[in-house]
Design a protein that fits this description.
The protein has about 575 residues and is of the alpha+beta class. The protein has helices at about 10-25, 30-65, 70-110, 150-155, 170-190, 220-235, 240-250, 265-270, 275-305, 550-555; strands spanning about 125, 135-140, 195, 200-205, 255-260, 265, 320, 325, 330-340, 350, 355, 360, 365-370, 375-385, 390-400, 415, 420-425, 435-440, 440-445, 450-455, 460-470, 475-485, 490-495, 495-500, 510-515, 525-530, 540-545, 565-570, 575-585. It has a 5-stranded mixed beta sheet with strand order 8-15-14-10-11, with no helix packed on it.
């Protein structure tokens, strides 16, 4: 706008427009500011809900730890409470850090943060060390400078306001949230407990998770896939914990690089760039919700380890049942189910990206039409917990597709042509894999069949078909002997007229090919030709290739009803030169 080869006056006008645009953008309306006040109130209510959800699971686990009627469960619950205590301590630190940032921002904006609980006080309930997980309650309606953004930017992004590389308190919070995320998912993954022969309870060391640092992802769906892939790669996470670990990780992970104002910038830079004070506070309260939601989900999973689980059964296992071998174009039925199910909670089955509508008796009924030679069917099956959360597992089913086959043979016509790509189909019915081999002939796969070519000048060749079992064993099924002969000679055509027919002398092209009764797809090339007309004087015309234009004068002079003869040298795919003659009436 103010660069390039513009005049100084044009540059000045451009700068004025730029400044005016910026001022208009910063003139935040009162209705928008009031909306942030409402969002903050809703987020604080949500925080209390998440806090209560986690406290409920912790209280239930504490009850088991005090129940002396079940010594085994009591011992496990006490051990698990150690992990719960660790997670609570981590969450409380994050809640306090974020509360401190809220206070710092509002105080920098000149707000009264010392007065608590009085009429028109911003702070309704101050942070209490006795309830370290409960965020301070604020009423942003009484913030005087709701539209102030300089101080929130300076504190969260840094004094240099570098949106790509912020160095303020926001980047420290960003890193702290990642550390909290890693600590929670790793603590959850490692909280499996077992009892030894002496009755001592300890954590199962084989279950663990090294939280990865995933910073680049397109959206939450892709992030979930990346985390799931990492879990599969490590192979040390209990299957029942996978969904919870993924959701906790996603809830606490923000991308380091996002699109903003037509360029890439850090998530902190975009979130707090020219963010009014009330908007900045609402954003921080939202992060507190993420912290408490992660805590609640982790505690819920840990509570389920000692009875009174979240399902109406204790083990969740996806199974897919169906035929191992089917014939091509045959419709078959695939049954996908959970190993145990609740009649009040049918599984939610997905196949090929679409929900399966026919679900009954704990099974999703899928009808599939067989195609190809082998099919790999995949999808997901999920069951809802008592609290309504959906637990999803992937399923895979391998199906071998066999082609229906019968056999009708003409033993007298078992012929392989030399120098020609003979097409052969072979089927080992009842076997997942078919193989064809040859003696006296080369065999190569081609599409769904084979190409067979005789080797040398032998008069016979033998083809053998075998099947391979699922465990890799090869079974020889049948061998057949074939006669090896040269390709039959082609017929000579003048234009579209076959040897012996009536042709038009205006046609200038000869062809050597098989008539319809020979079902071979072989191409013959005419190397040279010679034309003769009875009674014609001089040397018969001739030439290379299939174009007979050199005989035009001779043909024009010939009388109607005359017989024209051609003698041609023809070469086929076998490389053999053949002399072919043809006679035509004109």
């Amino acid at each position: 706008m103010a660069g390039g080869k513009e005049t100084p006056r044009q540059k000045m006008i451009g700068m004025m427009y730029l400044v005016l645009t910026a001022l208009l953008a910063l003139n935040v309306s009162k209705s928008i500011l009031d909306a942030f006040v409402a969002i903050e109130e809703n987020m604080q209510q949500a925080n209390l809900t998440e806090l209560a959800r986690g406290d409920e699971k912790k209280g239930a686990l504490d009850d088991v730890a005090k129940d002396k009627t079940n010594q085994g469960a009591m011992a496990k619950a006490k051990k698990l409470l150690e992990t719960v205590t660790l997670i609570d301590e981590l969450a409380a630190k994050e809640i306090k850090k974020i509360d401190d940032l809220k206070y710092e921002i509002l105080e920098a904006c000149g707000e009264d943060m010392a007065t608590v609980g009085k009429e028109e006080s911003i702070v309704t309930t101050a942070y209490d060390k006795k309830m370290p997980l409960k965020p301070a309650r604020m009423n942003l309606e009484f913030v005087a400078g709701k539209d102030k953004y300089d101080d929130p930017m300076r504190i969260m992004i840094g004094p240099e306001t570098n949106l790509k590389k912020p160095n303020g308190a926001g980047i420290k919070l960003f890193e702290d949230l990642k550390k909290y995320r890693d600590a929670v998912v790793e603590a959850l993954a490692g909280s499996q407990v077992a009892t030894d022969t002496s009755g001592n309870v300890s954590l199962v060391k084989k279950f663990k998770f090294d939280s990865p640092d995933i910073t680049k992802f397109k959206d939450q769906t892709e992030l979930g896939i990346l985390v799931r892939n990492e879990i599969k790669k490590q192979g040390t996470v209990n299957e029942e914990d996978i969904d919870d670990i993924i959701e906790i990780y996603r809830g606490l992970t923000k991308p380091e690089e996002v699109d903003g104002h037509g360029e890439k910038m850090h998530w902190i830079g975009k979130t707090f760039d020219h963010s009014p004070s009330v908007a900045a506070i609402a954003s921080l309260t939202s992060l507190q919700k993420d912290v408490l939601a992660a805590r609640a989900r982790a505690l819920s999973r840990i509570r389920a380890r000692v009875g009174g689980g979240e399902y109406s059964f204790n083990k969740v296992m996806p199974l897919a049942y169906g035929p191992e071998v089917v014939n091509q174009n045959e419709e078959f039925t695939l049954e996908v189910l959970m190993a145990a199910f609740d009649t009040d909670k049918q599984p939610e089955v997905v196949y090929n990206g679409a929900p399966v509508k026919d679900v009954r008796d704990g099974k999703g009924i899928i009808k599939v039409k067989a195609s190809g030679s082998n099919m790999t069917l995949t999808g997901t099956v999920g069951i809802r917990k008592k609290n309504g959360d959906l637990t999803v597992r992937e399923w895979t089913k391998e199906v071998t597709v066999m082609k229906p086959s019968g056999s009708i043979e003409l033993p007298e016509l078992n012929v392989l042509y030399r120098g020609y790509p003979n097409k052969v189909n072979a089927t080992a019915s009842g076997y997942p894999k078919t193989s064809l081999s040859g003696s006296g002939a080369s065999v190569s796969a081609s599409g769904e069949g084979y190409i067979v070519k005789p080797i040398g000048k032998g008069k016979t060749a033998t083809l053998s078909v075998s099947g391979t079992t699922a465990d890799g064993k090869t079974v020889s099924l049948k061998s057949m002997q074939f006669r090896c002969v040269n390709l039959p000679d082609p017929e000579l055509y003048w234009g579209g007229v076959k040897n012996g027919g009536k042709a038009s002398k205006s046609q200038t092209q000869l062809f050597a090919k098989y008539p319809p009764e020979i079902p071979l797809n072989a191409t013959f090339n005419i190397v040279k030709w010679e034309c003769q007309v009875p009674g014609a004087q001089g040397k018969p015309p001739g030439g290379p290739g299939a174009n007979i234009s050199a005989a035009t004068n001779l043909l024009r002079a010939a009388k109607p009803g005359s017989q024209v003869s051609f003698i041609c040298t023809v070469v086929g795919p076998d490389g053999i030169q053949r002399k072919k003659a043809g006679a035509f009436k004109i």
